[in-house]
Amino acid sequence: MDFLRPASWEEALAAKAEHPTAVPIAGGTDVMVEINFDHRRPEYLLDLNRIGELSEWEVGQESVRLGASVPYSSIMEHLRAELPGLALASHTVASPQIRNRGGVGGNLGTASPAGDAHPALLAADCEVEAESVRGTRLIPIDAFYTGVKRNALEPDELIRAVHIRKADGPQQYSKVGTRNAMVIAVCAFGIALHPETRTVRTGIGSAAPTPIRAKEAEEFLNAALEEGGFWENGKIITPAIAQQFAALASGACNPIDDVRGTARYRRHAVGIMARRTLGWTWEQYRGVGRTLEGAA
Ligand SMILES: Cc1cc2nc3c(=O)[nH]c(=O)nc-3n(C[C@H](O)[C@H](O)[C@H](O)COP(=O)(O)OP(=O)(O)OC[C@H]3O[C@@H](n4cnc5c(N)ncnc54)[C@H](O)[C@@H]3O)c2cc1C
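Above: inputs. Below: predicted complex with flavin-adenine dinucleotide.
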């Protein structure tokens, strides 16, 4: 196995163009496991750790440009206000050691349906900045996941950053696991309220071949909130609306039975998480969100 160690982003793109089968390694918390278990024996490893800019982020007007290798621990520490859903999801990843190494670029690279960043990214809304020597393109997150552990990257492309919409309202992330830490999700749910556009977005993890949004649940809720004037009057969401949202979220799942849980349990748990996280975010919106909006 050859080890390529580019000193700059341009060198990394050139190396990937020359060796499209080279496997990028960032934190290595997925790649090294696969190599150790002999699941993968790449001809080339492309080490991205000398490229400092991949561990940096910029907070813009509308979005955060998050370098592909920014570790989860930095997101938790520095971007809690701008990216609350992703910060909560980061908290649930593995252990402090893994959170200091692993990042969103690696989670996207692996594209496991159980990756914790995905539901938060889907709910917040973001674009993946992919680059090759041929140029740069922004891939909408909805088009990024193409199959079980497959993504929309071309063989010569690398992820440079993720452009994540800054929170304009409350966000939540909920995960079911067999214990509190060091656990892969049995299933997970992310939700983001977007009062500016009066929309709610969702993300579901580990309950379908890819991370998905519960689109019918979103459409139902968006219409119900609009119809009832909920965004203005800040009324408590009725149990009937919350239940229907939960049922549609549960219906969006297409899970399998595996060692971590049954398909039936996953559908059930996603419904529960959808109802609970909607309640938490809406309470936050009623309490703080609307006061801030009114004051602006
Ligand atoms: C003990 C343990 C516990 C874990 N627990 C969790 C958990 O709770 N939740 C969770 O979501 N994950 C978990 N993981 C998996 C892993 O930590 C995450 O997926 C993490 O986000 C991977 O990031 P990384 O930088 O280490 O990626 P790496 O291992 O370096 O790379 C992962 C994949 O992404 C590709 N890649 C990396 N960077 C780029 C780039 N810039 N452009 C293109 N492709 C790239 C690699 O080629 C590889 O295919 C766990 C892993 C371990 C070992």
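DSSP finds eleven helices and 13 strands in the chain.
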